[in-house]
Every structure is written in C-alpha cells, then in structure tokens.
User: What shape does this take?
Amino acid sequence: MATRRLFKQVPKFTIFELTLAEQCAIDLWNGVNYVDGEEMEVSDEEFFIDFALPFYDLVKNQNTRNLITEFSIRRLIRVANLKALFRSANPTDFQAGIRCIANDIVPLYDGMISKTLNLTPTGYGTRALLELGTRFVTPIKAPTRNGNYRVPLASRVLFFAIPDMLLFNFSNELAEAMLFQKRPQAAIPFFMETLHTGLILNNGLHSMELPPPNIMGSALYKKIQKTDWWQRRVLDLALLLHFGVVSARPQLHTKARQIVARKKTISTP
Assistant: This one.
C-alpha cells in the first residue's frame, strides 16, 4: 500500500452546497445533464436496472442468465465520459470483467453480508474496486504503471451494481484535484477512507431522500432506499462542484438558493 501523503480532506459543506449537489443528483436520476439541461442517454435509475438487478440475481443464483452485459458497460463509459480509457495501449477486457463480478465480487459481497471477512467498512469496496479494476484490463507482456487498472470504470460499475456496499465514485480528475496519488490503484484505499470520513462529517446529507422511481420496480427501489447510496451520490457531486471538476447550470443554482431560503423561513420561529 502507498505511503500516506498530504491530500485534501472533504470539507464541511454548507447547506447551499449540499442542496445544489442534490439538485444535480436529481437531474442524473431523471436522465438530465445537470450542466446543460439536455436529456442524457441513460439515467442513474436506468443504470440500477442495468447493473443492480443482474448483480442481485447473480447473488441469488450463480446460474442466472441475467448478467451484466458489455452493452451496459459501454453505455456507462459514454455517459460517465470515460472514453479516454479506450486510448490506452492496454485494451479493456469486458468479458473478463463480467466474469470477475461473478467469480470474485459475488463471494466478496457474500462475505460482507455474512460478516465472515475481517475487513474495515471501506475495505470491501476497496478490494472489489482493485479486483475488478485489474480484471478489466487485457494482460500484456510489458505491463505499465497505470495501464493495468481500470479503477474509474470499476468504481462506476460497482457503484450501481452494489448500492449496499460502501463505495464511492473514483475519477482521475477528482483524485488529482484532491492531491491523491496519480496511480489510482495506490490512491484508492486513501480515497475511500477520506470520502467515508466526509460522509460522516456532512450530517446534512442524512436528511436527503432518494427520489421516487420512474421505471424501477418496487423491490429494487426499496433495497436501494435502505442504503446510504443517495447520500454518497450527493457527496460525490458536492466534491466535484467544490473542486471545480464540474459545474452546474445557472438554473440549478437559482433553484438551490430558493430551496435553502424556504428552509430558513420554515425554521425561523
């Protein structure tokens, strides 16, 4: 594991910052780009259908034919703007990644549920990310320092596949802004711990609720609703906005200010 370095911590966000981030998350849930207001190819809710439904089917029955597909992963790559990984000298091995989910991630998940593995709260997610991130890469004779991992891709896939595992979206841009190590495989343990601390610090997140479903079945929706996935989604966006990695369109800023103003009016005796 890499040595600890002086990276930036998750700040204590203001009510406005969290509200703005939540408005961005609501847009993504409904398939709207929070930057320009345009319709997106896939919504966050649809990604759960693409990834969580097959994953939990796999947990129930290893012989299920309802598996995560390369098509779904490629759609996630496009929506998450991860196209740069296709320019790597090491090809992405989609089928190896899909097999890894069945052969390695499901047993890890079972160990988490049964509490038979002695890992920290972020340890399960860290192990899952590194395992899947490695398997997504086609082996080559001359490995490179960074080319043998697909940590950002693995984090996106698992974030939607396993909402009840403590996982955070990892992006190279956010990691760089927070001064984490440039090698994702070295940064990810510290990244996970830091965001978990930030999740606890920003207790205002806990009053935020998952938006109602548009197309999702009630069983999956209730399963997600019982987790802190929505709070982690909002935290992810609050960090991206705070460190200038992304920006929200002006209308969302206005809406967030109005919501905060109404809350202050209601709370004033």
